[in-house]
Design goal:
A hairpin with a 4-residue loop joins strand 3 (61-67) and strand 4. 6% of the residues lie in helices and 41% in strands. It has helices at residues 2-17, 134-137, 314-321, and strands at 23-35, 55-58, 61-67, 72-79, 86-93, 103-108, 113-118, 126-129, 162-169, 175-183, 186-195, 198-206, 214-218, 233-238, 247-249, 255-258, 272-274, 287-290, 296-302, 323-329, 335-339, 351-354, 360-364, 368-372, 382-386, 399-405, 408-413, 422-431. The chain has a four-stranded antiparallel β-sheet, with no helix packed on it. It is mainly beta and 433 residues long. It is globular, with a radius of gyration of 22 Å. The chain is built from three helices and 28 strands. It binds 2-acetamido-2-deoxy-beta-D-glucopyranose (3 copies).
Length: 433
Amino acid sequence: MKLIKAIVGLLLANVCSGAAPTVSVVSNTLLDAKGIFFVSFDGVVNVDSFQLSAVLAFQSFQYAAWYTSTGMAILGRRTLPSGAWSTLQLPHNLSTSDSHNVISLGVSPQDGKIHVALDCHSSQVSYTSSVANLATSGASWVASQFAPITTTLGTLNIGTEITYPQFVITPTNLLQFVFRTGVSGNGATQLAEYSAGTWTNVGSWASAGRAHVSGTWREQSGAVSCSSLGLTNHDTVYFYSDDLGRTWFNSAGTHIGTSGTSPINVNTAGIIIDALDADHGLMNQESQTVDSTGRIHIIISYVPGRFTQCVENYETVRPEFARPFHLYQATNGSFVKVEIPFFIQSVGRSQIVMDADDNVYVVMPFVRVVTASKASGWTDWTVVYNGTTTGLDVFEEITLDRARVTPVSVLYQQTSTGTTPSAVKLIDFALNG
Ligand SMILES: *[C@@H]1O[C@H](CO)[C@@H](O)[C@H](O)[C@H]1NC(C)=O
Ligand SMILES: *[C@@H]1O[C@H](CO)[C@@H](O)[C@H](O)[C@H]1NC(C)=O
Ligand SMILES: *[C@@H]1O[C@H](CO)[C@@H](O)[C@H](O)[C@H]1NC(C)=O
């Protein structure tokens, strides 16, 4: 009897040591007791998973942005890893109660300016940037460090129908601005680049839908879906550029598009990595990251066909049945998709991050963290933190700092009703591998 128990104990120990990676809470900080609150398009304006970035680390500092109860845009700064937050108020009020109208932050490494783009949904962007070197000097955190708000990027006019403002830093340390022009279902993804203090236009790299390096197509015609209350997103696509977004290739290495002159479109060959019709409530703008070998890992989410072949209303059926999926490029170049075995219980999106050992951590709505180890081939999915049971009281979707992942800072807003303001908070998780 004893021997059997000992063997069982040993087996359990082995299972545990090979288990999915864990996380632990480093801190949970109140940024604003009264963030603006209203639900539109199933989201809140302070915390959208597609924001790049609402929380952003750069060298010694981390920045966060949100709208306070009156709609004024607030920028916070702390010294990493655990300094107190200082705030300043930009001279800009949220123009409309639309959750798309997020604040996005970027830093240009060449001159240490902090860039802010905000408050647009198929409308003019509002933009400002700081004095040079504010991001590196840590000089006083006051609004006068920022230029007056404009509807252009410096002298670059980017038009009047802007959505999804996102800043990214290239491997060559240029700051780029990725944004959509046009309207949902008939938009184009555009690229502008900041170098030597000037913004220039690179042009459109995808049109007639919505495409990203990973993305999905959105049709304007509801007729592509089985139900008028469905989502007209279909298929997941992947393509890449090795020259800072000028020319584009599919995963087989075939040249498929050139920014400005021949944008990728819904008929471009060889870019679909997961085929799915428009009847499954597939979400757009979800999340992606790249592993240590340079391969892409994507989170998508939709209602699997075993639950229904026709999502009649995505706002009710996604919370009931949608699952996240981990879709990644294997070493042999083909794409592998694994269903993450937990319901999202929300319309909202999930965010993927990886640690240095390529273990995967997915922060689902309500700050529910599920993980899978590389050692298991990303199959041992486990819930390692559940913000509902720990009482965080999170309003569904979250956003996180992609520039610093150990620890990872997750921005969330507490739930509320109507338009009663609620707390904007930042929780830091150590990724334990
Ligand atoms: C923003 O709105 C507040 C009231 O909510 C008002 O006092 C303030 O003047 C407005 N500021 C700007 C820049 O519009
Ligand atoms: C490529 O690798 C994946 C993951 O290891 C595997 O599931 C798939 O069968 C492989 N495909 C081919 C064509 O070898
Ligand atoms: C998190 O906890 C809530 C409340 O108990 C539960 O409904 C939900 O299914 C849990 N989520 C996961 C992913 O385990």
